[in-house]
Amino acid sequence: MVCGTESLTYADLAAQARALAAELRRRGVARGDLVGVRVTRSIDVPVAIMGTLLSGAAYVPLDPAYPAERLDFMTAEAGIRHVVGQDLPARGHPPAPDVDLPELARDDRAYVIYTSGSTGRPKGCLITHGNVLSLLEAALPLFDVGPDDRWTQFHSINFDVSVWEMWGPLVTGGTLVIVDPDAAYDPEALLDLLLTRQVTVFLQVPAVFRLLFEAHVEAGRPPHALRYVIFAGEAVDLATAAAFSAGEVRLINMYGPTETTVYATFKHLDDEALRGTTNRSPIGRALPHLSISLRDGDGVPVPDGDVGEMWIAGAGVSGGYLGRPELTAERFVTREGVRHYRTGDLARRLADGELEFLGRIDRQVKLRGFRIELAEIETVLRGCALVRDAVVEVARGSELGDYLVAYVVPADDFAPGPVRAECERRLPPHMLPATYVVVPAIPLTPSGKVDRAALAVS
């Protein structure tokens, strides 16, 4: 693996991870414990994760960019006593070649990733080693990848695509190219990294890929080594994907919620799919270890061609939410003797058996790969002293893609600065409204619901 001027071989990684695992065990970490991982984009990321797993613990990503209040909540709810990257470094521990490490089973916990919660309280999704292994065993054979491939790790470990980004190359003998902070936020620098490192497998959300595509065009479309571009996190931009590929790269669209372990579907975007004439948002078919049924509000399967909520079953479905039995029972349900996760996402099964993604059944959205409950942001806004009421919507921008707009009914002495500051203290960066629109009142429909069409013209 490489990051900037640093690199590690597989032997280096094994030694560093075992040393960290030994230190965690020395500090009392036991099999099944939860350990925080608070590291920035660096070689430390895979060492911290692998060392935590080797110790028998599961890791909980704690992004340093998140507000202190949110990090404190996650740390307290998960009962975290040790944080790699905070109270102990990921690397630099004495070698431990003979340390006695626990043997793990597929049912052991691997990680807990916190996602947005509609009540203003984030929820931690618990994923096992078996969940991850089932993904790798089912999905990797769909790709022609091996030791000569170089994968990027672009995404934060708070976004579960990072799981596929890291383990994809490591279990196939490839090279992991960790994207440093400069390249992560600069399309030109990211393009340069892809070219100089001869990256062959690149995972990206469509909004960021659009900026990379524009940088590639402005640079004169220099030759690259990409073999696969894998989209996830948002509806794919078919026009941009087609213009970039020109038949040179295999474009793959994969859909999946955190609760079913990264990905649930696979679709090769061939020329017909890129035209989008019969399927405007193609997500393909369920991965081999999963099944997807489309159901109505009562859980009854709908006929092909009708719109229904995606219910996912199979080896990737997680055990539920940490410390949230009621929410787990609501979202993870058993029908016909099979346990399913109710995604809240709508789709239609077309005549060829493939799925067309049609958006959310509620007000949860995906933005730049992160799943966001708009209600959580509204709860924070309404808790601000200078705000009487608020509604958050997603707006579409021509250049940067979708962004969040907060429609705010002001209290006395309203000023946007303190409201922004309060949101920054309580919400992670991807959940911060990009703009605030002051309105005298939240418009309502005759039935008493928020009139979102009226808000859009405010």
Short summary:
This protein has 458 residues and is an alpha/beta fold.
Primary descriptors:
single chain, 458 residues, alpha/beta, Rossmann fold, GMP Synthetase, Chain A, domain 3, 2 domains, three-stranded parallel sheet, 29% helix, phosphopantetheine binding, AMP-binding_CS, Nonribosomal peptide synthetase DhbF, AMP-dep_synth/lig_dom, ANL_N_sf
Ends distance: 50 Å
How many runs of DSSP E, i.e. beta strands? 25
The CATH level-2 architecture of the largest domain is identified as 3-Layer(aba) Sandwich
Task: Write down the Rg.
Answer: 22 Å
Query: What is the CATH topology classification name of the largest domain?
Result: Rossmann fold
Number of self-contained structural domains: 2
Biggest sheet architecture: 10 strands, mixed
CATH class of the largest domain: Alpha Beta
CATH superfamily of the largest domain: ANL, N-terminal domain
Strand content: 25-35%
Query: Which spans have pLDDT < 50 for at least 5 consecutive residues?
Result: none
Class from secondary-structure proportions: alpha/beta
Number of helix segments? 14
Taken from the alpha-carbon principal axes, the silhouette is globular
Oligomeric state, counting identical vs distinct chains: single chain
Let me know the average pLDDT.
Answer: 92
Helix content: 25-40%
Q: What does the model show?
A:
The chain contains 14 helices and 25 strands. It has 458 residues and is α/β, with parallel strands linked by helices. It folds into two domains: 105-359, 3-Layer(aba) Sandwich (Rossmann fold); 366-456, GMP Synthetase, Chain A, domain 3 (2-Layer Sandwich), CATH 3.30.300. A hairpin with a 2-residue loop joins strand 18 and strand 19 (338-349). Helix 1 crosses helix 2 (44-54) and helix 7 packs across helix 8 (206-218). The model has no long low-confidence stretch (mean pLDDT 92). GO terms for molecular function: phosphopantetheine binding. This is Nonribosomal peptide synthetase DhbF. Residues 2-322 form the AMP-dependent synthetase/ligase domain.
